[in-house]
Amino acid sequence: MKQQDNYRFQVNLSGMINILSNHLYSSPKVFLRELLQNAVDAVTARKGMEHDYEGRIHIELAGTGSGATLMMEDNGIGLTEDDVHQFLAMIGQSSKRGKDLIMEETSFIGRFGIGLLSCFMVSDEIVMLTQSAKGGPSLEWKGKPDGTYSIRELETALSPGTRVYLRCKPGCEVYYETENVEKWLYDYGALLPYPIELRTERFEQVVNPAVPAWIAQPELARGQRNEVLRFGESLHGERFGDFIPLRTSSGRTGGIAYVLPQAVNLHAKKNHRVYLKHMLVSDQAENILPEWAFFVKGVIWSDELQPTASREHFYENEKLEEVRAELGESIRAELMRMAEYDPDRLRHMIQLHALSMKALAVEDGNFYRMIHRWLPFESTYGRRELGELIDDNPNLYFTATLDEYRQITHVAAAQSLLVVNGGYIYDAELMASLPAINAKVRTERLLPEDVSLTFTDITAEERMRYYELTRMADAALQRFRCRVQLKRFKPVELPALFTLSKESSEFRSLKAAEEASPDVLSSVLHSLGSSFNPEAAYSTLYLNLDNPVVARIFMPVNAGGLVNTVEMLYVNALMMGHYPLNRQEMSVLNQGILRLIEAGLAADAQKGGGPQ
Ligand SMILES: Nc1ncnc2c1ncn2[C@@H]1O[C@H](COP(=O)(O)OP(=O)(O)OP(=O)(O)O)[C@@H](O)[C@H]1O
């Protein structure tokens, strides 16, 4: 080829239609949304021409199973012959935007020029009868998924508007069933300001009730509590006990945030229902409210956000960011208002959704200051509200991890030392920043070593006396990488306390993973384990000489049983600290229990008893 040749891309129309109709949308049921949306846009367009005109949308279902048909009719703007060629026959062409400006704002919902194709998911033909409100003949357009279409003039003139006819494609019967169509029409159109009539062979009714005034003006919702809660239940399918009105300063986005009746996980899927220009865009919108607001389920409307082509999400753009921040501010402001005027309601909400409230408190010092006294924390005094803990002692100790808390908790509780568990998400951060929002409080992070230091050392004379036995106990725990130290501490009922440095904690986790892994991975983990500093990877078992059992095993006459008993104390201390036992430790526990059973049986037999 010598000279440069220019060619034009060829488009395989049936392939394109297949991709658009079958792979863009999450479910074929969206054909109903696309039809409804076109009808709404047609009504909006006609309203722009004739102000005293009333929009109307009518759906008819006939036949059953594979013989079912659906017809959607609107009395909107309709299409002229030119419109049909330009907008129906050209994929990607839409009458609802300027030349190419897909992101441009208009009063219409449609913009991409592909929505109608979704009907091919449920029908092998789209038939449209239309009469333009601008005049001209009434037309019939028939489109097929192979990319062909026909157009003809009708003999009888129709009144302005459009009818779309679909016939059930084999396998799509479910999309023509009355109950489903009725439910989806309600889902998509519950906030539409004009009636959607549904006629079947059995009934004719309006699917969407009149939209209550407090939807458009959410601040009025406070006075209509029961109605608002019932509305939330009919849309979300669950019962709520409380709600917060939402509105941005422009008034172009608003709605109701329903407070979930049960506590939710931080990572639970967010299912906000978002309506764009009165039509449902998504019932699973994730990004419309701030991350911390996971304790509510929203019913949110907007006329300013940009939907993606599948219409199931919004573009993550500056506008969405701004809207999200302002809706978050609505929730925050309502919570602040409650703190002042309705503290019992807020307290109830905090008890149910502490995690959400803590997430917001971490972000917002003022909010934290307002609500901190009601936030619950786990402590060595039990699960308490922060206010109670502060009243008890304004100098609060806290741990930064769960492991540290576990190591400290027995000793601290025994010494009546108040320690807050900072191991759960947000807690350590909140404890550290508490003095900044409440000047009366001082907080300090506590390490396991700090608590261990409150132990009483044994005397030099005792150290000499127990030197040999301590060495034996220490040797017995070598294989567990644990050192033994003899101390005196409270409570005397506690025979032993296990503590773990950061390194030994990591080493234990690595060993546990190694035990549970298949061979190849296990050898990798093993070599990783050998890179640990052997000194630092040791844990410590403190034995309490004030405890009667420990005092007895450290009597020279009992030296024979010392190794077994120390091993058992070690395993017992691990269990008290909620550490999972590895295979070796489990076997120590089993053998110890068997020895106890044997000893019990032997003692019975000696008493002259035993089975007859
Ligand atoms: N009921 C209707 N009344 C009048 N015109 C309609 C109707 N339905 C479709 N049209 C015309 O057909 C065009 C294509 O419709 P289609 O649903 O494919 O795309 P769209 O609504 O423009 O954009 P989107 O893909 O974002 O929905 C529309 O732009 C409109 O001009």
Automatic annotation (TrEMBL):
One matching Pfam family: HSP90
Keywords in alphabetical order: ATP-binding, Chaperone, Nucleotide-binding
Listed transmembrane segments: none
Family recorded in the similarity comment: Belongs to the heat shock protein 90 family.
Protein name (record): HSP90 family protein
Annotated source species: Paenibacillus terreus
Lineage: Bacteria, Bacillati, Bacillota, Bacilli, Bacillales
